[in-house]
């Protein structure tokens, strides 16, 4: 079942502008079986250029229903249906934001007829609705009015369904994928329920095992990328093996990273293991050589020594190690950054004090290495970090005590003045170097507030 939607708006920004007209046609693939067509009072002024485009005036919407008055009917009309629109991100984004203003989360699977037409009918000079209708001989009446554009999109959808030759499709965030690529349990309803929120998501196989854990600022979009972007054998196997998807909304990217790291260590999902073998993450290791010097090295191999810090990539790790070398006058060679048999280049220009040639005592050199390691860790202090919460009324609270992670939780915004409430909301969470590395990267991040105790 599809619901084909078109809207007219007071401008192009869904955060500030409002819907002034909406048309929604419930379509079963053959016939329109229900509809909602109405002007909407946007409770704001309609700019002249919008009136010139749509012919909708302030006088026309003065006695029209406000969005909240049609919201319930639209929910019922679209429930269980795929939200179809020409340039779906625009229409769906406006509708979702209207519901957000009402305190309601509106989630539907979406199908964008612009994207699908490009896929099924490539090479056309333009994919705008007006030009498409002309190219494909689709009748379009009352252009730039919701009903006219929506009915034309219904006709376009019918043509695309016929051109698809009956192959079952699953809409995924505007695009479409073949039914055969997904597990039978993964339906458009399942995908439509995915949140556009920050958090951690879990892929489960049909044996009830977690096979992949990820985090994203937008769970719906990231999972759509997994599905539509699956090209390698590993990725297609993972997508087809996924029989269920669950998630935990955090609001905070910091806590999402903490949860992802913790759960991967606990569950060791098969496709996360494969990802590590591909070297997508790295760590800073410390070892002591036969001469007593502390050596540092960025590597993806777990057997390289004591883990100091972890990084998202080898490049990120190398960049961090280079800063340590420069700030603490460490030896390039003993940090794995110089491979020649003689002294390192920094020694040749006077920046390295000669540990690579035995000219500096191990105790003196190791003292600076330990200073660099200490600075790379969390400050030895006690504080809370406040970040965005899972909903507008809450904040995420992360507790650090004497440089160690104690845990995290959610606190009501109106309780932030009471420090005891911050302590009380904390749930214990394991402290480790990976967690501290994540937290350290967010201490000075925009939107994150630090409160000492």
Textual characterization of the structure:
The chain is α+β, with helices and mostly antiparallel strands and 453 residues long. It folds into 4 domains: 2-175, Ribonuclease H-like superfamily/Ribonuclease H (Nucleotidyltransferase, domain 5); 194-276, GIY-YIG endonuclease (3-Layer(aba) Sandwich), CATH 3.40.1440; 282-376, no CATH class; 383-452, no CATH class. It has 17 helices and 18 strands. The strands form 5 sheets. It has a 5-stranded mixed beta sheet. A 5-stranded antiparallel beta sheet has the order 17-16-15-14-18. Strands 9-8-10 form a 3-stranded antiparallel beta sheet. The radius of gyration is 28 Å and the shape is elongated. Mean pLDDT is 88; it is low at 274-280.
Instruction: Give the uncertain stretches in residue-range form.
Output: 274-280
Going across the major beta sheet, what is the strand order? 3-2-1-4-5
Radius of gyration: 28 Å
What share of residues are in beta strands?
15-25%
Number of domains: 4
Total beta-strand segments: 18
- Which whole number gives the mean pLDDT? 88
Number of helices: 17
CATH fold annotation of the largest domain = Nucleotidyltransferase, domain 5
Question: What's the CATH H-level superfamily name of the largest domain?
Answer: Ribonuclease H-like superfamily/Ribonuclease H
* Content-based structural category: alpha+beta
**Largest pleated sheet:** 5 strands, mixed
CATH class of the largest domain: Alpha Beta
Distance between the termini: 56 Å
GO molecular function, one term: 3'-5' exonuclease activity
InterPro entries: DnaQ, GIY-YIG_endonuc, GIY-YIG_endonuc_sf, GIY-YIG_UvrC_Cho, Ribonucl_H, RNaseH-like_sf, RNaseH_sf
GO biological process, one term: nucleotide-excision repair
Protein name: DNA polymerase-3 subunit epsilon
């Amino acid at each position: 079942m599809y619901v084909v939607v078109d809207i007219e708006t007071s401008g192009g920004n869904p955060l500030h502008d409002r819907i002034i007209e909406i048309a929604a046609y419930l379509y079963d693939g053959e016939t329109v079986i229900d509809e909602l067509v109405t002007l909407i009072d946007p409770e704001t002024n309609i700019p002249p250029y919008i009136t010139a485009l749509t012919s909708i005036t302030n006088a026309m919407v003065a006695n029209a229903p406000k969005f909240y008055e049609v919201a319930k009917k639209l929910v019922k009309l679209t429930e269980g249906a795929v939200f179809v629109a020409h340039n779906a991100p625009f229409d769906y984004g406006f509708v979702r934001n209207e519901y957000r203003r009402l305190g309601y989360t509106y989630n539907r699977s979406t199908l964008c007829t612009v994207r699908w037409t490009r896929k099924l009918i490539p090479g056309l000079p333009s994919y705008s609705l007006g030009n498409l209708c002309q190219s494909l001989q689709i009748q379009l009446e009352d252009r730039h009015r919701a009903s006219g554009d929506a009915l034309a999109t219904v006709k376009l959808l019918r043509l695309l369904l016929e051109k698809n030759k009956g192959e079952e499709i699953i809409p995924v965030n505007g695009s479409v994928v073949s039914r055969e690529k997904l597990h039978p349990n993964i339906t458009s309803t399942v995908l439509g329920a995915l949140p556009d929120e920050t958090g951690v998501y879990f892929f489960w196989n049909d044996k009830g095992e977690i096979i992949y854990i990820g985090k994203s600022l937008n769970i719906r979009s990231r999972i759509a990328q997994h599905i539509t972007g699956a090209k390698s054998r590993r990725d297609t196997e993972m997508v087809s093996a996924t029989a269920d998807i669950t998630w935990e909304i955090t609001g905070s990217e910091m806590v999402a990273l903490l949860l992802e790291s913790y759960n991967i260590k606990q569950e060791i999902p098969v496709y996360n293991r494969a990802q590590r073998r591909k070297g997508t993450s790295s760590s800073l290791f410390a070892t002591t050589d036969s001469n007593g010097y502390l050596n540092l090295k960025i590597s993806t191999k777990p057997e390289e020594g004591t883990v100091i810090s972890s990084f998202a990539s080898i490049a990120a790790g190398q960049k961090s190690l280079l800063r340590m070398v420069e700030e603490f006058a460490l030896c390039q060679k003993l940090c794995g950054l110089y491979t020649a048999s003689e002294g390192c280049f920094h020694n040749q220009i006077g920046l390295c004090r000669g540990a690579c040639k035995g000219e500096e005592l191990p105790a003196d050199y190791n003292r600076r290495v330990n200073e660099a390691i200490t600075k790379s860790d969390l400050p030895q202090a006690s504080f809370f970090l406040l970040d965005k919460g899972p909903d507008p009324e809450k904040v995420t609270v992360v507790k650090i005590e004497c440089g160690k992670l104690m845990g995290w939780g959610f606190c009501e915004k109106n309780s932030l003045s009471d420090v005891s409430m911050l302590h009380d909301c904390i749930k214990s969470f394991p402290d480790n170097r990976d967690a501290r590395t994540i937290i350290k990267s967010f201490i000075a991040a925009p939107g994150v507030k630090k409160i000492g105790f």
